[in-house]
What we know:
There is one protein chain. By secondary structure, the chain is α/β, with parallel strands linked by helices. The protein has eight helices and seven strands, in the order βαβαβαβαβαβαααβ. It has a seven-stranded parallel beta sheet, sandwiched between helices. Strand 5 (138-143), helix 5 and strand 6 (181-188) form a beta-alpha-beta unit. Helix 3 packs parallel to helix 4. The protein starts with 9 loop residues before the first strand and ends in a 10-residue tail after the last strand. The mean pLDDT is 97. Bound molecules: NADPH dihydro-nicotinamide-adenine-dinucleotide phosphate (NDP). NADPH dihydro-nicotinamide-adenine-dinucleotide phosphate (NDP) binds at residues 14-21, 38-41, 44, 64-67, 93-96, 116, 143, 145, 188-191, 193-196.
Amino acid sequence: GGRWSLSGMTALVTGGTRGIGHAIVSDLAAFGAAVHTCSRTQTELNKCLEEWQNLGFKVTGSVCDVSSPPQRENLIQEVASTFNGRLNIYVNNVGINFRKPTIEYSTDEYSQLMAVNLDSSFHLCQLAYPLLKASGKGSIVFISSVAGVVSLGTGAVYAASKAAINQLTKNLACEWAKDNIRSNCVVPWATRTSLVEHLLKDLKFVDEILSRTPIKRIAEPEEVSSLVTFLCLPGASYITGQVICVDGGLTVNGFQ
Ligand code: NDP
């Protein structure tokens, strides 16, 4: 227990096999939480679970495509049975992007992006709610993007899905405070993960990022997961409804 420990707590992190999600699972487990995670790829999931087990972490996992409503129901059922119907922490991490101009978006691409980024976030919160409430101390952390705060040229649909998540954060914070559930949002900027590794090979693009970012480098996943972990700690018990950027100063940089 105590303000700086997650010992005795339970957590669900979606998309924990790579990138930011992987760093979040490792951090929460290192602070003492029992963590359940998911991804779409069984082999990679097994490999990660074995690594965490070797580190002495309490991590379980199951295959789930969060864009599928029945698979979301199965995931939460699995979490409920693993953690006896109680969940302290829900980290809504999975997100995808199709980087293209608005007029090139097909109806299918629009629907797929929204299904993965927004529909799944809303529905998983609905499904996790009774478990979070039953724990007596619940915390939701959404992973958004600075694309949901300022226009970045990363695609309007992705930006809209993330802006919607920012607002979901604030509404759930107010709606579920009575149930002792907090809701906050962590907003990363360019972070070294498999989602963007192809983009980071484009040196012109990287130069453009660095020229606009006061802290002149790309973030590492651990620099995002540390805020997520802080927001879940008992020490953060009065923080709710906040949308916090981990962006090396990008969103406050006017002109220099
Ligand atoms: P990665 O693509 O590196 O990792 C994504 C993880 O989620 C993998 O474990 C992947 O496993 C899993 N995943 C992907 N789709 C699904 C799905 N439909 N169902 C279940 N699991 C899925 O992503 P990042 O770590 O970079 O991104 C994490 C979050 O951070 C996203 O919401 C993203 O929008 C946000 N973000 C990232 C930034 C960056 O620069 N990296 C910047 C701003 C925001 P598998 O593919 O096997 O399912």
